[in-house]
Amino acid sequence: MDSPAGPSAGAGGVWAAGGGRAAARGAGHFLLQGKDFAMKKLPPWLGILLLFLGALPGAAQVEKSLYKLGLVSGDQGSRNENESQRRFRAAVLNAATDAFVASRRFTMVERAQLDAVFTEKNLQEFIGGQVNNKLTDVLGLDLVGVVDYTVESTESADGQRELKCIIDVRLIDVKSASILATLSSDRPSMSVPSTARAAGQLLYESIRDAFPPLGYVVSVNGKEVVVDLGSDSGVKKGDTLEIVQEGEQIIHPVTGKLLSSPMKVVGKIKVVSVSPQVSICKAPGEEVALASLVRLQGSRTLLLDWAAKIPWGLVKGAAAGVILRKVQQ
Predict the structure, then answer these.
(1) For residues 31 and 23, what is the distance between their CA atoms, to the nearest angstrom?
(2) Do both 176 and 263 map to the same domain?
């Protein structure tokens, strides 16, 4: 059973926006640099800036075909939770795990292994930006996902009370303890997700948007290429798939750190027909090699290319300082 006992079941429901500088804190309030402020103090332009802060990207890790991920509860479970709430928290973690596995971009580490590394104290230190070398040296992790949830009470069109479950996951790069992405199940849906399982299905869609599925060329017959990505992975007739290779690792000449370059696009193929599990494509150029790695072509603009070069960490810090000074006046 994955239904919460009630709205109070969301013990882990504080949502950390972006790099954690600004967070929702209940109706009419927000948390900024550890202080609670009323929204009514904010002029409209600062309210917009606060929302903008939450949308800014965190520190980016280079793209990999497969990430090794461990999921932990945001507060490792509250001592004040009752048995029903503890079961619901476990259901949320299970739903989040299923969503990441279904995306085909993550391999999961058992929670028992994470529990052996994380105490409540060093988990909070890690979330706060302190690197924990055991995560890479012992577990070989790329990312840790900090899973929180909220349960909201809403009113349906016919006046009936409904519960809405929202799952939020902060993906943290274990090498730098910086936030790579914040993913949420809070997205448009035909029905209100009242259970952890339903919220997990929406979380999967957010994961798929942030980490498009990768597949392989499984058959080649001249210019006809079959890949193991189909409609279940969001592929449609007419889509373009990129043939990619993982970037080579480079040793930084100054710091000595191991760096990875982004994936390299070496070709493109066009989808001509789709079934749930495979797609048949046409290769316009040279013959494609069997077992080549493929992904959905990403859409980029000059604006996105320009935005990727901006030091967003500095921008967020400066903007947060402006808001903090304003609300303290």
Answers:
(1) 5
(2) no
